[in-house]
Design goal:
Number of helices: 4
Strand content: 25-35%
Largest sheet: 7 strands, mixed
Bound molecules: biotin
Radius of gyration: 18 Å
Number of strands: 12
Order of helices and strands: EHEEHEEEEHHEEEEE
Helix content: 10-25%
Length: about 240
């Protein structure tokens, strides 16, 4: 088993990207459990080099430094965090869904994303992993930017509430600790699958031979999305993105 995870929490007003800063700290030897929380980011990043909208008094932007000592599949830490996040949101009586691999949705809108970055050693274990989690907790004062207006939402519909933000952070970190300490056993797997919104949906995905359509039918033990095409072929997707048709 992975062993105990003890947090060392650092909170800053603003930073370019909590992932970028924590990765630098990881390279300089910062210990497992270091957590960097920012109240705003000037260069918040998402997957596929996208910008993650990170204004003040709206969200929770944090990165957690881990140094797992057990072998893990590439998506395991992202899926573990997504399950922990889904349970945290539902702990506030708000129902949510996970969109493989790293997105959280409430009422059909994306409210959170996860960006895991790290360095894998030659023995296949992580030298370090940084899990970055960005959550739109409250509606932004001036609304979401035009580019994401149609797709983005917030977990809560009330105005910014400092006590609520703190309580959300505490619960999320507890849930991540619970799942992390049980690794490599994927105790988060059931939640991850039960909360999955893609099953049964027709999706478009990229293969080396071009774009294909198929029906998302499951998630395997390595947290790859299984997609079945009309010609009967099954594809296990490792990463990238799928579009719901
Ligand atoms: C995504 O939606 O593709 C992932 C978004 C991840 C955003 C978080 S916010 C905290 C951490 N710092 C970053 O720059 N990105 C992650």
């Amino acid at each position: 088993m992975q062993g105990p995870l003890n947090y060392d929490l650092h909170i800053v007003d603003s930073v370019k990207s909590t992932n970028t800063v924590l990765k630098e700290a990881a390279k300089s030897g910062a210990p497992e459990g270091t957590v960097l929380v920012a109240l705003a980011q000037t260069n918040g990043r998402g997957r596929l080099n996208r910008v993650f909208f990170s204004p003040k008094d709206t969200g929770l932007y944090l990165s957690i430094l881990l140094r797992p000592t057990v072998p893990l599949s590439p998506s395991a830490l992202t899926c573990m965090s997504a399950a922990a996040l889904a349970e945290t949101i539902e702990g506030f009586q708000i129902s949510c869904a996970i969109k493989w691999v790293n997105d959280l949705f409430v009422q059909g809108k994306k409210v959170a994303g996860i960006l895991t970055e790290g360095v894998i050693r030659s023995d296949g274990l992580y030298a370090y992993a940084v899990i970055g989690i960005g959550i739109n907790l409250f509606p932004p004062e001036n609304g979401f930017p035009e580019t994401i207006k149609a797709s983005a939402g917030s977990v809560f519909s009330c105005p910014y509430d400092e006590a609520l933000r703190k309580s959300f952070l505490k619960k999320l970190l507890q849930r991540i600790k619970f799942y992390y300490e049980a690794l490599p056993k994927p105790t988060f797997g059931e939640t991850y699958r039960v909360k999955q919104m893609l099953f049964g949906s027709e999706v478009l995905f990229a293969t080396e031979a071009g774009m294909r359509r198929g029906v998302a039918s499951g998630i395997d033990d390595a947290f790859r999305l299984l997609v079945t095409c009309s010609d009967g072929t099954q594809h296990a997707l490792n990463r990238g993105e799928v579009t719901i048709l």
